């Protein structure tokens, strides 16, 4: 799980540090999960950031859901392969559908990590583009 979080944090740092992201009207801050985990107390949010905005929430919810599943595997002492083998379906509500797709697509724990990080990158961009659209609509309908 720790390796997944490190890899995912690096992916989010790379995507949110890109010139394309920084020039977006929806860009608020670089998503530096590693720095936040090192410097903040449990329950605290980075100063001045509204983490409930889709720019942050889409990738961070996906990261949290995937990390929770990997933690379950470690804690329960079971493999991803055995959980998938004994599952008839995977489901999720709202954004949980994304994590369910990652779960059901990955054949191994390593694939889960690889697909999870890839989808996390996608969720960053989806969140950024959704925030851009939302801000445009707010401007149009004021």
Following the backbone from N to C, one meets helices and strands in this order, namely HHHHHHH
Query: Roughly how many Å apart are the termini?
Result: 45 Å
- Which stretches are poorly predicted, pLDDT < 50 over at least 5 residues? none
Percent range of helical residues: 55-70%
Average pLDDT for all residues? 93
Determine the oligomeric state from the structure: single chain
Characterize the overall form: globular
CATH class: Alpha Beta
Portion in strands: under 5%
Instruction: Give the total of beta strands.
Output: 0
Largest sheet entry:
none
Write out the CATH superfamily name. Answer: Malonyl-Coenzyme A Acyl Carrier Protein, domain 2
Radius of gyration, taken over Cα atoms and rounded to an integer in Å:
16 Å
Topology readout:
Elements: H1 2-17, H2 19-22, H3 33-39, H4 54-76, H5 80-85, H6 96-105, H7 109-140
Task: Describe the model.
- The chain is an all-alpha fold and 142 residues long.
- The chain is 69% helix and 0% strand.
- The chain is built from seven helices and no strands.
- It has helices at residues 2-17, 19-22, 33-39, 54-76, 80-85, 96-105, 109-140.
- The radius of gyration is 16 Å and the shape is globular.
